[in-house]
UniProtKB/TrEMBL annotation, chains A, B:
Protein family according to the UniProt entry: Belongs to the threonine synthase family.
Name of the featured protein: L-serine deaminase
Positions of modified residues (N6-(pyridoxal phosphate)lysine): 55
Domain Tryptophan synthase beta chain-like PALP: 19-299
GO terms for MF: L-serine ammonia-lyase activity; threonine deaminase activity
GO biological process, one term: L-threonine catabolic process
Family matches, as Pfam families: PALP
Cofactor: pyridoxal 5'-phosphate
Superkingdom of the organism of origin: Eukaryota
Lineage: Eukaryota, Metazoa, Porifera, Demospongiae, Heteroscleromorpha
InterPro entries associated with the record: Ser/Thr_Dehydratase (IPR050147), Thr_synthase-like (IPR004450), TrpB-like_PALP (IPR001926), TrpB-like_PALP_sf (IPR036052)
Length: 333, 333
């Protein structure tokens, strides 16, 4: 992602996130067929990041900046992905690290923070409670809270997702980008990235509609009541002509299975929301069948297996004997 | 990985694994310091693969070949990672897919196969039982079992891990490669890759010692009693002057935490074994402090969180109040 360093708020050489970014843009032919659209792409941020979500992008900028400012301790309020990223990048950078998360997070995401060795503090409350507490702590302890007191730098990292997909499309903006909105900063920065590339003359004036997606559901990483960049996200979406949509739990799980069974990509619940909503936007005509569309799939399904556990188990159990398998085959037919 | 197509057994254009391979070779400075060695690298196959393990390499070759042969159904016996890879790649290629696994596998690995939509058959037995049953089934059903009847093609995919790390080292072979040995094919093919690059004049005669690692423990992906390529692996190791080692459960968990807390890389249990053994080889002088060494970290920790669940939980739970946090800080100090 640091190929775009000139457009990111770091002075001098970036010191974090060497192996972050430039994730694949997958031409999703099977999925496009299933949805009845001609040109569909997945910006696959489930892979090629150290902690398998787009949060590695924002943390790469935040920690480079925190070190420039001379902080020795980094911290964050998180629903999981950000915690994983901050903990991992802090370990590499040898910074002290405090992670604040809601107490009820998915086990995979908690273990995937603890393993890097930070101090993890679980808060008996929702994400908004965690966030408020961190603001208070930030007033007392001289720490870099990546998504609070150094948020303006952090958020700029999101632009790289959009920079990359434009480069990968041959320096063209798509007609639609569907992206998850939790705090709202990704959606806001996609808008900013489009604008910057246009100002620099790298692309024509973009006519891209940005569609934010939100659930209130099993997708814990999006369940934020008081989004930090909410107002800017709304502006960005409105100015682009995009529309917001939501998805139910059943639609989310179905979408996770659809993207896996057509494109071999295992997304976390947030990506399920993104696809479920894209499907609706295609069905109701907001996305036309001839309009190039990019889905931002921002996190990895291995972190939220709980969401699928009782919804995919159609496996069969048999003894290790050929006759048992023959019998199963006659039953399955 | 298809940059090395000329050295892989496919005719014509490969049709699978477009987004597989060329994983990072990380210069592991923090970890090297911790181990008392100068030049240590991690070949990080936990990232940049569709299903986050080196099995995507072998499956990319196997499925390209299966399609060349005209198979419409692919299958495998697996301890998890291979199942994930076959299921995902089969979905992309629109092939029918049967997955055979031991019934007691980690939940994450089972869900991470089911999500792609294959038929999953869980066998009440160990991996050797599963493997034997698959050989029998392969005698009756006209399916491509990637690690059985088309194994010779499949196994060649492992060479790409070694090709890549040599290219990434500037076309030089390291003094040591430490790699996990389950069926033994990775270790065998590392030896073959070194030889091929030498024959082609791409590197000097390699003087690389290959060290296989094996546990009999929580690392289920390595717990194979009757390794298919065992004899060849032994030959490869012996000819290179390498030594085999094993690790205990506690050593594995400690090593998983060490690599995470120094390099921000979250490995599955097999990678824990690799590091634990490397540590011993350094301590007992088999790996000298000045000898460039590569650790093959072949799978992702998110698939085996169970192994860590009660061993990393040093998190604290507090109410969302500043006073609660102040109190915690005095207790932690």
């Amino acid at each position: 992602m640091w190929r775009y360093a000139d457009l990111l708020p770091v002075d001098g050489e970036p010191t974090d996130g060497t192996h972050t970014g430039f994730t694949p843009l997958v031409r999703a032919k099977n999925l496009a067929d299933a949805l009845g659209i001609k040109e569909l792409y997945i910006k696959d941020d489930t892979v090629c990041h150290p902690t398998f979500s787009f949060k590695d992008r924002v943390v790469a900028v935040a920690l480079s900046k925190a070190k420039e400012f001379g902080f020795d301790t980094v911290s964050c309020a998180s629903t999981g992905n950000l915690a994983n990223a901050v903990a991992a990048h802090a370990a590499i950078a040898k910074l002290n690290c405090f992670i604040f998360i809601p107490a009820d997070l998915e086990v995979g995401k908690v273990v995937a923070s603890l393993v890097y060795g930070p101090t993890v503090v679980r808060i008996t409350g929702n994400y908004d409670d965690v966030n408020r507490l961190c603001s208070e702590i930030g007033g007392i302890y001289p720490w870099a809270f990546v998504n609070i007191n150094i948020r303006p730098f952090y958020a700029e990292g999101s632009k790289t997702l959009c920079f990359e997909l434009i480069e990968q499309l041959g320096w063209k903006a798509p007609a639609h980008i569907v992206a998850p909105a939790a705090g709202g900063s990704l959606v806001t920065k996609i808008g900013k990235a489009l604008k910057e590339f246009h100002i620099l003359g790298l692309i024509d004036k973009p006519n891209t509609k940005i569609h934010p997606v939100r659930p209130n559901t099993i997708a814990k990483s999006l369940a934020i009541g008081n989004p930090a960049d909410g107002i800017y996200a709304v502006d960005t979406v409105r100015n682009s002509g995009g529309v917001g949509e939501h998805a139910t739990d059943i639609e989310i799980v179905d979408a996770i299975k659809l993207i896996a069974s057509t494109e071999g990509i295992f997304t976390e619940t947030a990506g399920g929301v993104t696809l479920a909503v894209a499907k609706k936007l295609i069905e109701n005509g907001h996305i036309g069948p001839d309009e190039p569309t990019v889905l931002a799939i921002t996190g990895n399904g291995l972190k939220t297996v709980e969401a699928l556990e009782n919804k995919t188990d159609i496996s069969h159990i048999i003894a290790p004997q050929l006759n048992a398998f023959r019998k199963l085959m006659t039953e399955v037919d």
